[in-house]
Amino acid sequence: MRGSYNGCGLNVLSLLIFVLSQFVEGFSVENYVQKPAPGPIGRERIDLNRGWRFLRSTTNPDNLIYDERPDTLISNETVILKPWILPSANNFINDPAKQHERPDGNPGSEVPFVQGSFDDSEWDIVNLPHDWAIKGPFYTEEDAIVGGGMGRLPIHGISWYRRKLSLDRADKGKSIYLDIDGAMSYAMVWLNGNLVGGWPFGYSSFRLDLTPYLKAGEDNQLAIRLDNPTDSSRWYPGGGIYRNVWLTKVNPTHVAQWGTFVSTREVSSQSAEVDIVVDVENNGDTDSKVAVSTDIHAFDAVTGKAGDKVAEFQREVVHLDAGQKISINSSTTVENPQLWGPLPAKTPYLYIAVTKLFDKHKAIDTYETRFGIRSLTFDGERGLSVNGEHIRIQGVNQHHDLGALGAAFNTRAAERQLENLQNLGCNAIRMAHNPPATELLDLTDRMGFLVIDESFDCWEREKTANDYHLLFPDWHEPDLRSFIRRDQNRPSVIAWSVGNEVGEQYTEEAGAALAQKLHDIAHEEDPTRPATASMNYAKPNMSFPHAVDLISLNYQGEGIRDTPPYDGLEGITTPPLYPGFHKEFPEKLMFGSETAATLSTRGTYLFPVTNESSAPALDKEGGGGDPVSRRVSAYELYTAEFGSSPDKVFATQDDYPYVAGEFVWAGWDYLGEPEPYYLARSSYFGIIDLAGFRKDSYYLYQSRWRPDLRIAHILPHWNWPDRLGQVTPVHVFSAADEAELFLNGVSQGRQTKEASNYRFRWDDIVYRPGELLVTTYKDGEEWANSTVRTTGEAGQLRLTADRTDIRADGNDLSFVTLEVLDNEGNLVPSADNTTMFSLSGPGEIVATDNGDPADMVSFATTERKAFNGYALAIVRAKVDSSGTIILRATGMGFQHAEVILQSEV
Ligand SMILES: *[C@@H]1O[C@H](CO)[C@@H](O)[C@H](O)[C@H]1NC(C)=O
Ligand SMILES: *[C@@H]1O[C@H](CO)[C@@H](O)[C@H](O)[C@H]1NC(C)=O
Ligand SMILES: *[C@@H]1O[C@H](CO)[C@@H](O)[C@H](O)[C@H]1NC(C)=O
Ligand SMILES: *[C@@H]1O[C@H](CO)[C@@H](O)[C@H](O)[C@H]1NC(C)=O
Ligand SMILES: *[C@@H]1O[C@H](CO)[C@@H](O)[C@H](O)[C@H]1NC(C)=O
Ligand SMILES: *[C@@H]1O[C@H](CO)[C@@H](O)[C@H](O)[C@H]1NC(C)=O
Predict the structure, then answer these.
(1) Ranges for the Beta-mannosidase-like galactose-binding domain (predicted)?
(2) Each residue's pLDDT tens digit, 489-521
(3) Is this prediction's pTM over 0.70?
(4) How many domains does the chain contain in total?
(5) Whether 517 and 437 share a structural domain
(6) Which residues of 299-326 are buried (b: 16+ CB within 10 A; e: fewer)?
(7) To test the ligand 3 pocket, which listed residue (506, 541, 582, 584) has its Cβ within 8 A of the most ligand atoms?
């Protein structure tokens, strides 16, 4: 019953979009919680994350495969399982004629790993979320099986996960589902030797019905097979069941998977119309009759508590035949609603809709849907408005990995990323380039970020040999529909992106037709939000942009290789295309879906420095790159060959004020794609490095995005014993309009920031040790001062925890920063000495890092070199054991440093 989209709204300016929610299926907000909360009546959602046995093999141990693939040799003994897996998609294929029928037979049943009698006691014991590849080791050779693009980690191979499930007597007659939030990749599931189904796309969340295969008692054997090819991605995908897994137990008649859609209309501070669609399904053998009621309550996402009831939908009685699914629509009014909006200008208020099914007067199911009440307006001239007020998009792109923790999702690690981004002044995230963890969307809803939720990085045309193009023909419809149904109630999600830089931009009408098809699927599922696909090649006079609701430009907005420093580089040259697209599509909101692609290594400065405001990073004098150390200068002027400095992007956005804003490539550094040095492991694009330390660009964005913040950030550091008497440019990032720089008390000149200048730069400073002081002014008033001093030798270590009290739930983390200081307590900015971390008490060191893309030491080690003065240790408390955890850092012959953490059950 997903309404068909009524074509007019989106092609006309000012599409009103309303919001939605998020489904929680009766579980608490935090994924820290391991035990099921005292569940809503009639429904249990049990965390299945603990106690798995795990085996990985780089050769095929079982002769099974999903389908033929370029990287595999098929023998006459290989069993192809695709025909048995495809039916798992049926709920997400709308045309009944295209749904799949399961063939006879039970392939794989002879494989020992699927059998209860198989002895897996030699296998590793693992908990989920699990990423088998992250502990490494890194491949360092030139022609490694997994190269720099995919992070040089052992992501490939076939793996098996096994565990037992127990079925209580009370479960008799229930429908029991396995819900897998993400498994990388080609998941196939057996229960008690029976092939249940599977889902190949590693970023999709999916449900399998275990009911027919379960037996009473504790001895149900679950076995999950994954197969993760090389050359499957342009970045690090991770490997394993890297998101949460749940067992859902319900009455045969229940609210279906992702079975509610809440949207809002006519939103004002006085009232809002709320529409709900509830899908009820009867998975049993007999018909049933149920009453369906839904109440709306205020919701506090921090405590997870529902507040007062504010409205209700009319109760309805429905009859369901065995196997039938029915949709019920209803509308109601919420008076004086508290509207959802992004921080800091607005508050992300949430509501929760509690749907109950009654058999006579007995409640037999309870299903909770978190949502927000808000209106969105997308306008070609005015950009984005939320609840009628203009909000400039100050966004970043984020990949799914969590640095040293890999792809294994962790709520606290994701929250830390968002906290740092919020402090930066960022209000929007583009989920590059695939469906994110649902818990990340819990955070964006609660913390008030705007989200572009993206499904695919490629369609039919491949980017790498084993990427999604292999799955696209069979799976694009179910992957896209299931993705939207999963996320459609999220207030933070403002738009769907159905593709990133797809090859179909190059195929004229055929490519545009495919774009239109995916766009139409998105609208069938969700008529309330625009659908887009980002364009790094398509031009205003092509067909492709006609198939998208929003003009989402990757790099083309500010121009590609269009200024003199980029002359002579290979590849397309594009002038700034914002004006061209605006002329052709004046009604469509336009934004930079990827901007900048500035490259830098935190705390690294190479000389001489370009005099330009944007230049490609090149391995030559003044080019900003050092191929030996694999570092790029952090003056934040050097870019990927297709990129632009932040300054150049800001200038273009200011030239074309109808542009709604930007999503910087990238917020945090991520694993893989180490442009320009593919012998490294992780990216150079981030505003924040892989370990979470701020690069200089952090302050450049902060001074633009939080113009009221009184900061003046000086670069570089001032420890240059080898540069005595040499020109060493000094740049300052600040929202001020005037600045004066002093070196050892002597003025180096006062500067006024001209229009289209976004930094103060003194490019002729001759290095002498001592102190740099900058004093800044805005509108003639003093604004902010700052100083940078030449430091002494390293003399001490300091440890600082981001949080000293953590929960003993096996998931919560403390991120501990190590700083190498001189005897006066100044950070020694080039210190690269090695530290040993050790720990006592009920915790463990999960990983260490330092943010250097070229550091090829495994994240799992406790010995770590500092990088430009900093290192990071990530500490996790053990499950169920409160106590004091002491983390120590030793090394370099100094007194050790320690930090004390408390873990509490
Ligand atoms: C139910 O909702 C769908 C889409 O939201 C719409 O097409 C349909 O007309 C609605 N039906 C009723 C009875 O309101
Ligand atoms: C597979 O092929 C090999 C040689 O090509 C042959 O010896 C073997 O009997 C075949 N196995 C099956 C199961 O057909
Ligand atoms: C489209 O515009 C580009 C310039 O942006 C031009 O080179 C090309 O010839 C145009 N193509 C058509 C079909 O008009
Ligand atoms: C930078 O220096 C080069 C070479 O001296 C000169 O050609 C160019 O115009 C300068 N660019 C700027 C922006 O000053
Ligand atoms: C900034 O530095 C100047 C010059 O040393 C001094 O006069 C002024 O008081 C300082 N302002 C602040 C806010 O510290
Ligand atoms: C720290 O490292 C630097 C350079 O790598 C080295 O010169 C210095 O001796 C080291 N300090 C200690 C205390 O190990």
Answers:
(1) 160-232
(2) 999 999 999 999 999 999 999 999 999 999 999
(3) yes
(4) 5
(5) yes
(6) bebeebebeeebbebeebebebeeeeeb
(7) 541
